[in-house]
Design goal:
185 residues, Rossmann fold, single chain, 6 helices, two-stranded antiparallel ribbon, alpha/beta
């Protein structure tokens, strides 16, 4: 799915936040929305972009392409069970969360090794991927990853291997569309 108009505005706001931080490099999932978010965010900043397959979102198997409402309508509401415990009740044919977490650890280690000078880099990925990585850093069970909030175009800062500096920074998105962050419309 391509980025919506709101997604493009969020990506531009992410770019505004990056101007103050000036990462040395940007790595992004090759999936369309992550790649487009990265491209919009770094437009005009002369920051190199590398697409990495290991940064892709977790596979939802048989649920790929379905809406939440369609999945909830299935017998027994498998979506609710998945949200409650994504390890035990993963979608049929989905990528196991421990495999997603291993992929995330591998990707971050590869990126860290490419920047031994310790300069900041930006990784543009997906909520499930980020949550699986944060579970490792915070010592959370993978069954608890949906307790973390990772908003679109938010910033989460980590100093590998396991030091979490911030999670879900959204100040740069404040008042987007006239709705202050944290308030329902």
């Amino acid at each position: 799915m391509p980025l919506s108009e709101l997604g493009r505005r969020q990506a531009a706001r992410l770019g505004d936040a990056l101007r103050a931080r000036r990462p040395a490099h940007v790595y992004a999932s090759p999936f369309n929305r992550a790649r487009a978010t990265a491209e919009i965010a770094i437009a005009g900043l002369n920051i190199p972009l590398t697409l990495m397959d290991d940064l892709r979102e977790l596979s939802l198997g048989d649920w790929e392409g379905s809406t939440v409402d369609e999945i909830r309508a299935l017998a027994g509401d498998p979506y609710a069970r998945w949200v409650k415990d994504p390890v035990t009740h993963g979608p049929p044919g989905s990528e196991p969360l421990d495999a997603v977490q291993a992929r995330a650890l591998r990707a971050v280690a590869t990126i860290s090794a490419a920047h031994p000078d310790g300069k900041d880099v930006l990784i543009v990925s997906h909520g499930g991927f980020i949550s699986a990585y944060l579970a490792h850093c915070l010592g959370l069970s993978l069954s608890d990853i949906w307790r973390l909030t990772v908003s679109n175009a938010s910033l989460t800062r980590v100093a590998p291997p396991r030091r979490v500096l911030s999670v879900n920074e959204t100040g740069h998105l404040a008042d987007l569309d006239g709705i202050p962050q944290g308030l329902a419309p």
